[in-house]
Amino acid sequence: MNLVSLIEWAEGYNRRGLYSPIGVGFHWLMAALMFFQLGYGWYLAWLPAGGDKLLGYQTHAEIGLTIMALGSLRFFWRSQISGPKNVEEDSFQGRASRLLQNWFYVSFFALPISGWVMWSTLPGDLPLSIAGIVPFPNLPFDQLSEGLQHTLMQWAAKAHLWIVWITTLAIPGHAGAAVLHYLVMKDKVLPSMLDLNGPEMPGVLGSSTDEGSAA
Ligand code: HEM
Ligand code: HEM
User: Fold this and answer.
1) Cα(82) to centroid of ligand 1, in Å?
2) Cβ atoms < 10 Å from Cβ of 107
3) Residue 20 sits in a domain of what CATH number?
4) What pLDDT is stored for residue 212 in this prediction?
């Protein structure tokens, strides 16, 4: 299957008000990684300084870089398809949900980049990789003065913490709104991210070719 037919297949789900299994897979895999990463980051911040903490941050950094790699693939994928339309785009709900979703996409890059800046100013030469597989370099900050490295560390730590907080607060808002849609509005918003049923629209790949012949 080439990219064009893959997109057409995914659009079949979108026309039924659903995310495709690719969108659903990206969503829940990345949501799980973000939950873990936020919890583990707070745990590491609380650990006393020492070898375990640095090793822990190495794992933290590698999972964060994996989130950035997955986020790039997901962003590309999302830019190719229209997505399901279950909420009026110009309504308050539509704008608010888009704002939160866009923020999550920003955080998939801004957290790893600010983390990478911090990591590159830390002493020690533990290597980095994406998911423990693809080697990832440090920024060449060891050539900078100690003062400048310290300033960079402080700015990056401040940015990391702000983005962590905004994301931590945005997640219950996002998940809560999805549950509210399910319980109160009883619409397709939450099922769109859970339902993996195949497309059953006439003319869509994997469906009967026209309504009449399906009878
Ligand atoms: C989506 C990815 C990430 C999430 C959700 C995340 C989350 C967190 C959290 C919750 C903390 C503790 C609170 C804080 O001190 O800010 C933290 C700290 C930290 N993170 Fe991340 N992080 C991510 C990616 C990264 C990456 C890719 C790196 C390194 C390459 C990194 C390096 C660090 C460092 C060095 C700290 C310690 C900051 C300090 O002690 O001031 N993070 N992160
Ligand atoms: C239990 C927790 C969660 C629930 C119930 C949930 C539910 C949903 C639902 C129903 C949608 C579709 C909304 C629509 O199309 O209007 C959605 C989209 C989205 N969610 Fe979540 N979500 C959860 C956690 C997360 C987390 C932790 C993140 C990342 C930090 C996240 C990021 C996104 C993004 C970026 C989209 C937009 C999808 C796209 O078009 O690419 N979600 N979520």
Assistant:
1) 33
2) 19
3) 1.20.950
4) 37
In a domain, 215, yes or no: no
Question: Does the beta carbon of 114 lie inside 6 Å of ligand 1?
Answer: no
Q: 163 lies in a domain?
A: yes
| Closest residue to atom 31 of ligand 2, CA basis | 31
Q: Is 136 in the pocket of ligand 1 (CB under 6 A)?
A: no
Closest CA to 118 of 50, 45, 51: 45
> Which residue reads 């949900």 in tokens?
97
* pLDDT one-digit tens code per residue, 123-169: 878 899 999 999 999 999 988 999 999 999 999 999 999 999 999 99
Q: What is the distance in A from the centroid of ligand 1 to the CA of 198?
A: 39
Helices 92-121, 146-180: crossing angle, 10 deg rounding: 150
- The distance of Cα 170 from the centroid of its chain, to the nearest Å, equals 13
Domain that holds residue 176: 3-205
Radius of gyration, CA atoms only, the chain: 21
